[in-house]
Specification:
By secondary structure, the protein is of the alpha+beta class. It contains seven helices and 20 strands. 39% of the residues are buried.
Amino acid sequence: MQILKNISLKNYNTFGIDVKASSFIEINAISDLKSVVDNQSDFFILSGGSNLLLTKNIEKLVIYLNIKGIEIVKQEDNDVFIKVNAGENWHEFVLWCIDRNFGGLENMSLIPGNVGTSPIQNIGAYGVELKDSMHELEALEIATGNLVTFSNESCSFGYRNSVFKNELKGKYIITSVTFKLTRETHILNSSYGAIQSELEKEKIKNPTIKDISNAVIAIRQSKLPDPKEIGNSGSFFKNPVILKHQFRQLQHKYPEVPHYITSDTEVKVPAGWLVEQCGFKGKRFGDAGVHKKQALVLVNYDNATGQEIFELSKRIQKTVFEKFEIQLEAEVNIL
Ligand code: EPU
């Protein structure tokens, strides 16, 4: 373990923002994480850097969590339990599962980031969320240095939300996640419109988990920018959930508004649609911009600063609020 000084974080965040860490340490084992945390009071945990907008230099120790390892813990009837360390890349792990015919994660193919941060915002795509197949996780309690096990229920998962974004924020570092996946009989989730049409295009009638994964990869590649080519952090905002009566007024004015009914009283409206209606889709302001194929994704074309992207996000929030009286909330962590 070596503490490095004055390190650029450009290659450690998918937005590709060039800020510096005053000190930086890479961690490859839980025992090392424990000893660093025991001896430091102020630090910042960096993982895949895929849900992060860095607007300034980090003047504290950046702990780069890179603990690798995948282990099949047990197999029971149709279930397989797999423990994955925090530093494993999410998509590579999904492909590892598909290669072994372990089902449950295929709809979440190609999501950027690492396994360890996936529960924090309960990642999800195409009708499936992490909470649907997470069995439990282990996390280091910063105050005590103890490893604590959290069951699925104790994570209080919600839409892009968990206990780790709320009452336990900053108190734990997730070190591994155990998934409960299927081994033979899979529960396929192909009802999402875009998956259906992708399978039809490929003339697939009885899809396997690999077919679903390939369909999701094709859909994502068709509208979401590859962070290796254009810096981005996926959806920048959450899809807002509004009250039914407000939705009715919106629908009266814009009958075509896409929506999903989430409860008897609430409706979710796609933020991408709201942002597009405000004319931002495909717009570029210097090197900061709004992706041309998905208005929910802010992009760094080359050398945008985090501050420039942040200013753009505030401008979008303000315009959307003025037009629709809906407050967009950032999905990414802004630092
Ligand atoms: N839409 C527009 N204009 C746009 C973008 C979207 O009108 O520029 C409309 C589409 O017509 C569609 C609706 O919005 O009717 C939904 O669009 P899409 O299916 O692309 O999904 P989304 O709601 O924009 C969410 C997740 C994505 C996830 C997709 C698919 C959030 C914040 N985002 O996006 O997650 O991949 O569904 O399940 O919930 C991420 O979190 O980084 C992410 C990419």
